[in-house]
TrEMBL record:
Residues bound to phosphate: G20, R24, R43, R87, V88, G89, T90
Gene source species: Levilactobacillus spicheri
HAMAP family, alphabetized: Pur_nucleosid_phosp (MF_01627)
Subunit relationships: Homohexamer; trimer of homodimers.
Residue(s) at site: Important for catalytic activity: R217
Protein encoded by which gene: deoD
Function field: Catalyzes the reversible phosphorolytic breakdown of the N-glycosidic bond in the beta-(deoxy)ribonucleoside molecules, with the formation of the corresponding free purine bases and pentose-1-phosphate.
GO biological process, one term: purine nucleoside catabolic process
Name assigned to this protein: Purine nucleoside phosphorylase DeoD-type
Assigned protein family: Belongs to the PNP/UDP phosphorylase family.
NCBIfam families: deoD (TIGR00107), PRK05819.1 (NF004489)
Domain Nucleoside phosphorylase: 16-226
Length: 236
C-alpha cells in the first residue's frame, strides 16, 4: 500500500502504461491484456495488471496534470519498484506537420511548470527527455506495425486553458504538440534512474482547429496503445 494506491507489493508489474484517464486504463486492460486484475480503485484511479504477449504489464490511470502524474510516478517507482513507464495520452497538435490521429513519440518535454525551478533553482533550465532505448524501440515497433509516428519536442503545460502562452514561438522552435504531464514523468524517471517515454495521439489541433470523430479517435488511440505495448515487450 502507498499513499494513493491500495495495491500490495508485487501486484504492480515493473512495466506500467500510464493514461491520464482512469477509464482509459480500464479500457486498455480489458481490450489488450490477458487476465487483467484490478489492483487499485482508490480515488477511481484505476490500476490493472495482466499480460501482453506473455509479459506482465500494469496500466495505471494518473489523472490530469503534473501534480497528479507526479504522485503516481513517485509511488509506482519508490513504493512498487516500477522500472519502465510509458505515458499514453491525448495531445493537442501545434506544428503544421502534425495532424489529428497522428501518433507522437515525445523526445523531450518543454515545460512552463515550476517543477524545474523548484528542483534546480533559478537560472537552470533542465531539459526533461525520454529514454532513448524506449524511444528507439517504440519507433521501430511502430514501423513494423505500419503505424506512422512523429518524433519530437512536445510541450507539457500547466494549464489546458491558456491564452497567454506564445505558442507560435514554441512552434517556431520545433515544439510539435502539447499535453500536461510528460515533463514530470521524464524528470522523475531521471531522478530515480528508471526509463520513461510518452506515446501520444493527436486528438485535436490547436492551430488548424482539426478534430476527430469518436470512431477515428478510438482507432488512432488503439494505434498508440499497440506501439506502447510492443515497445514494452521488445525493450530491454
Ligand atoms: O488524455 P490524457 O492522458 O488525460 O492527456 C491529456 O488530456 C488531458 C487534458 O484534456 C491532460 O491530461 C492532457 O495531458
Ligand atoms: O489540446 C490539448 C489536447 C489534449 N491535451 C492537452 O493538454 N491539450
Amino acid at each position: 500500500m502507498s499513499n494513493h494506491l491500495e495495491a500490495k507489493m508485487g501486484d504492480i508489474a515493473d512495466t506500467v502504461l500510464m493514461p491520464g484517464d482512469p477509464l482509459r486504463a480500464k479500457y486498455i486492460a480489458e481490450t489488450f491484456l490477458e487476465d487483467p486484475v484490478c489492483y487499485n480503485r482508490v480515488r477511481n484511479a484505476f490500476g490493472y495488471t495482466g499480460t501482453y504477449k506473455g509479459k506482465r504489464i500494469s496500466i495505471q490511470g494518473t489523472g490530469m496534470g503534473i501534480p497528479s502524474i507526479s504522485i503516481y510516478t513517485n509511488e509506482l517507482i519508490k513504493d512498487y519498484g516500477a522500472k519502465k513507464l510509458f505515458r499514453v495520452g491525448t495531445s493537442g497538435g501545434m506544428s503544421p506537420d502534425v495532424h489529428v490521429r497522428d501518433v507522437v513519440l515525445a523526445q523531450g518535454a518543454t515545460t512552463d511548470s515550476a517543477i524545474i525551478q523548484n528542483t534546480f533553482g533559478s537560472g537552470m533550465y533542465y531539459a526533461p527527455i525520454s529514454d532513448f532505448g524506449l524511444l528507439d524501440t517504440a519507433y521501430h515497433a511502430a514501423k513494423d506495425l505500419d503505424i506512422p509516428v512523429r518524433v519530437g519536442n512536445i510541450l507539457a503545460e500547466d494549464r489546458f486553458y491558456n491564452d497567454e502562452m506564445d505558442r507560435q514561438k514554441l512552434i517556431d522552435y520545433g515544439v510539435i504538440a502539447t499535453e500536461m504531464e510528460s515533463a514530470a514523468l521524464f524528470m522523475l524517471a531521471a531522478k530515480y534512474h528508471v526509463k520513461a517515454l510518452s506515446v501520444l495521439t493527436i486528438s485535436n489541433h490547436l492551430v488548424t482547429g482539426e478534430s476527430t470523430s469518436p470512431e477515428e479517435r478510438e482507432k488512432s488511440f488503439n494505434d498508440m496503445i499497440k506501439v506502447a505495448l510492443e515497445a514494452a515487450v521488445q525493450s530491454d
